[in-house]
Amino acid sequence: MAITTIEQAAAALKLEIAGMVQGVGFRPHVYRLAVRHGLKGFVRNTESGVEIHVEGESGAPERFFSALMDGLPEHARVDGVERTVCEPAGFEEFRIEESDSTPGGVPMMLPDLAPCPECLKEMRDPSSRRYHYPFTNCTHCGPRYSIIEKMPYDRAGTSMKGFRMCSECRREYQDVEDRRFHAQPIGCPSCGPSMKVLFSDGSELGFGHGFDTPAAQVAWVLADGLIVALLGVGGFQLLADASSEAAVRRLRQLKERDAKPFAVMVPDMAAAERLCRLSEEEKRLLASPAAPIVLARGRKGADLAPSVCMFSRFVGIMLPSSPLHALLMDVWGKPLVVTSGNLSGEPLCTSVEEGLEKLGRVADVFFVHDRPVVRPVDDSVVRVTDGKAMMVRRARGYAPRPVWRTSAAAPDVLALGAGLKNTICWLKRGVAVMSQHLGDLSSAASLNAFERTVEALGRTLDAVPQVIAVDAHPDGPALALGRRLARKWNAAVVPVQHHQAHVLACAVENETPFPALGIAWDGTGFGMDGTVWGGEFFVLEEEGEPRRVARLRPFLLPGGDEAVRD
Predict the structure, then answer these.
(1) Whole-prediction pTM
(2) Which CATH number fits the domain 392-551, given the four candidates 3.40.1090.10, 3.30.420.360, 1.10.3720.10, 2.60.40.10?
(3) What residues contact residue 231 under an 8 Å CB cut-off, 6+ apart?
(4) For the residues 249-261, what does the mean pLDDT come to?
(5) What are the DSSP calls for 230-274, one per residue?
(6) Peptide bond just before 152 cis, omega within 30 deg
(7) Exposed site from 75, 149, 223, 386, fewest CB < 10 Å?
(8) Confidence at residue 76, expressed as pLDDT on a 0 to 100 scale
(9) How many CB atoms lie within 10 A of CB 356?
(10) Does 3.30.70.100 match the CATH number of domain 2-96?
């Protein structure tokens, strides 16, 4: 973290703080801290972070700043502070001001966060007005990236803008001592989003059979061996009873997913330990605010249908990642298959209409809500190796946190990724912001989602690239888009060989000193000599691109890519 300091003075300070400081309760924290120190002034969101002006008795602004840096909110991350001594402006109070949307910085969006213990406790308390309410959240948890339409992060710039706060929610929002003080997505049963259960034809499943909540209805459907499409935080998921071989096999057949393992959600850590042998790091990841799928060693004799994991010795295990999932698991109480709500080769479905249209032949019942999903966000997947967490799929809970920083003088770059397991990355002012996992670009629908993500993330970041990096494959799906965007922005297109990109990414992520040996033990990629590469040894040096020094022996393969697939 870089802190730029001008000679300390007594009466007033201006602080410009960059980093993950929006959507984490930062402004309420600053407000309470400033009042505690007897300071006047303001705090407001800016495009790239937060601006603070504090003034008061001699030494009080410096004490405030020290206390702020020593006790940041749990999910906040400060990347830089510019601190300027200024003249007191005569403020009569400290207040939270309207956001400053002047462009110029690098907006930092917070990932979607799993429910905090306080919100879960409230949701399970019969005396609470949010009892059994599946959208409860506060400044410590809840949806962020999946609902943000524009920055700075204010309710008017999210998909919650259509839900007007009731008087009780407004009181919480304005109460400096409440954990929902300036929590942008808050709502309640009176004013917030709501759930309903639909048949696959769109007609509503009415209450009956003694069930008084939608979650109880859905659990009843699952117990009958049927498949449920649930509209979650970042799009649809398909659910089935993980102990029913018939239900899981039917889901595989309808989703056209032959052998790839399914993820399993369990209600709590005790249930996870009954299915898997978990290390302390795996348990920490499961219970973290990111709430990813963790690939862990399964136990013999676990209550899972054989078709859940197929031939894998790992179980993809996860805990409830939203209040909605927690509410359902409270009723269901046992392992549940939770897999992406899409057809094979297509992106996640994110709206009720799209879900009914595309998943109507897969799911028997739809569990949906009316809070719009701005962008599709899949579940993240993590594996622990030698005690270290390794990202397999980076999405909900992690994206779009910056993944790398370099000099602010570096050119602004848009990297469009590869055709399989695609993500895109914007480098703006030396800050690399990577999108959520987008998947394989093998269909028209996935290509459209890919292009929408490029445009939406670039618009949110207010970024225009000078360089567009594309996979070197001349028929790669990103190349056509890269060339079209290059004409629009007058940017240079730079082809990057697939396996060179892999070894360079590993070197950067691990801060590897050069020279180094990089080994890409990957699938096939278009080689710089016009042949297919796969299994490459590169020497990485300070200057120039990675130099290939060894490889697998090539052989002729009639049919090319079709032979690989068939």
Answers:
(1) 0.86
(2) 3.30.420.360
(3) 341, 352, 355, 366, 367, 368, 369, 373
(4) 90
(5) EE-SSSEEEEEETT-HHHHHHHHHHHT--SPPPEEE-SSHHHHHH
(6) yes
(7) 386
(8) 83
(9) 19
(10) yes
